[in-house]
Amino acid sequence: xxxxxxxxKKFTWYKADGSAKxxxxxxxxxxxxxKVWPMSKQYVQAREVLDHCAIVVxxxxxxxxxxxxxxxxxxxxxxxxxxxxxDKWMSYEVQGNSITKVKDKLKxxxxxLKEWNRSVFGNLEENKRxxxxxxxxxxxxxxLCDLMENEKLRRMELVSQQRLVEKKLESLYRQNxxxxxxxxxxSNSKFYHSTTRWRRIKxxxxxxxxxxxxxxxxxxxxxxxxxxxxECCMLQFADDTLFMCEDSFTxxxxxxxxxxxxxxxxxxxxxxxxxxxxxxKVGRNLLETYAKSLNCxxxxxxxxxxxxxxxxxxxxTQFWDxxxxxxxxxxxxxxxxxxxxxxxxxLVKWVLTTIPLFYLSIFKAPISVCKKISSIQxxxxxxxxxxxxxxxxxxxxxxxxxxxxxxxxxxxIRMFNCALLAKxxxxxxxxxxxxxxxxxxxxxxxxxxxxxxxxxxxxxxxKDLSRACSEGECDGWFQKSVVxxxxxxxxxxxxxxxxxxxxxxxxxxxxxxxxxxx
Length: 518
Known about the structure:
single chain; 518 residues; mainly alpha; 5 domains
């Protein structure tokens, strides 16, 4: 008899005064039961008047998404398998360092092995049934009349194939059961079938706890973002993965289990020195306790990721101090003395301007920070390395003009910052696909070219981006530079967008607009 997996409470009996509890009640089923209902589970119900909890048995199969790749030992019994792997591995042409090459080759090999397993190796049970049926047909024919020579050879070939399939099935059962092969018997025993079936039931995802409620529907699981409740299950960039959860030991143990399952499924060991735990509005002592449970380090917000500060306030000048210091560190007195004017201009255009590029592409820099960086650029061109202050013979506005207009082509930091931020809006308006666009559209985007700030709950980042599109030499520079193709009209706001000069139709024709709302 088998004890079915339990879902819900761990105990089924509670003493009235709460001093004791135990799992006195349980449901045991036979092997025949599991053959008919293989995914049965016990659901412990709420305790009402009695001190015992009712138990309900349910059996259903839920699809929780694709399963991780797993190598099958039986593949090694297939003729030509090792040559296939060797030829595939040698045929891959990848770029990068040694670690990157191995990672990319393994990724391609996994895809090819899945395709080979589906088209060549096939379903062993189905292959066995087909072979047995063909052998049986030949045996029946042999009873009625003598077989021809080619039919006899075919039956011998089928018998050989049957033996090979049996070996593959034995290897597969041995791998699935993960038990001692010689101690307990061979693949046709009830033990191996029951062990494999029990592992499948035990390892099945029963459900997850979502907002304090037990959920068994895969479609309802996942973080929902924005007005349309866009599902966002995981954040990944390159080889980095970000898990987000509420602060509780239950979630910490869940993350620990996820990392362990990843190691077992992929064969790649997680480097505990590289992953960190951060908390938003979580006490330092509690955060360090969680980190010790995960056997990892704790970090405070703000922190740096890919050279960018995450969690800080870019509206404060202190946020930009590392950027300004980095710009200063790239120049020295000897460069100003030894380089010609043309060399100093190249240093400003191609080095100093590109250092804050990453920050300027994401955050709107305060005016004081833009002035600091421009001051460093200006001093490098006219007086860096000099013993005394020199005169700037040309205004900085003229220096920042294009060469065709008589300038040196140096970028104005403030205008450059606005242009980089406006590029996000341009990418939102264009038909570029991406998860980032879906998340921003769900949270903030109101449609149209103007891209107004949607409500008081918009983030400071989205507000800065919206304002950047209206700053510059004249108000609304971005909107005036964009031309719409109406197309199907699903993204055009007839009354809200600008159609005539710089006015909205609802402003020019308020009475018609009021009638359209009725």
